[in-house]
Write a structure and sequence with these properties.
Alpha-Beta Plaits, 9 helices, Polysaccharide chain length determinant N-terminal domain-containing protein, alpha+beta, 2 domains, transmembrane, cell membrane, four-stranded antiparallel sheet, about 230 residues, transmembrane helix
Amino acid sequence: MKETISIKAIFQIIKRHLLLLISTAVVGILVAGVALTFLITPMYEAKTQILVTQTVQDAGVNNIQTSEVQANIQLVNTYTALLTSPRILDDVANKLGGDYTAGKLMGKITVGSQHNSQVINVSVQDEDQAQAALIANAVAESFAKITPDVMNVNNIDILAKATVAENPKPVSPSPILLIGGGAVGGLMIGFVIMVIRVIFNTKFKDETDVIEELGIPLLGNIAKIPENHEEGWK
């Protein structure tokens, strides 16, 4: 049966299946809520900041020249790589009593730098914020101890140590994104079910379907007789 669907017909189909779409969206929200409450472990974050600069060798120079600042900024990429190197992380693992390996620590640590800055940001995520702060501070301390021997620099300042908030909030998962994703996912499943129902529905909807399918003229139709009229005729 050759059939074209107008925008109006699409809205009518959606209207007929509105309860289905709402139901699947609600189910998606409930599933996301259960996953958020019972299945997904919340992660907390602790941050520390490190500043690395090189000492000016010429005693007659009182101010660091722009070229020296730019050279330090270019070295930031090297410092960020060093922060997650086995040499640093093995030292951190030893400080933490062997509870972590270098590979496990690497999965918890994120290192970045502010744009055009010599400040290095170290972020650590863990199930316990106190443990995340402990790891972040241990990384900063190990970096300050090992880097002077590796990079021949002696100006390493820990600008801000990681601290534990009184009422920490998890950084992941995001309840809004998870529940929103559950609603969208449920709604998409509802649309798929709706489309399948429409495609496999072979019933004639009106007289035009009969004409198009059978290719014969319509002689007439019989209106539906209300039930109360049937009772009166009896």
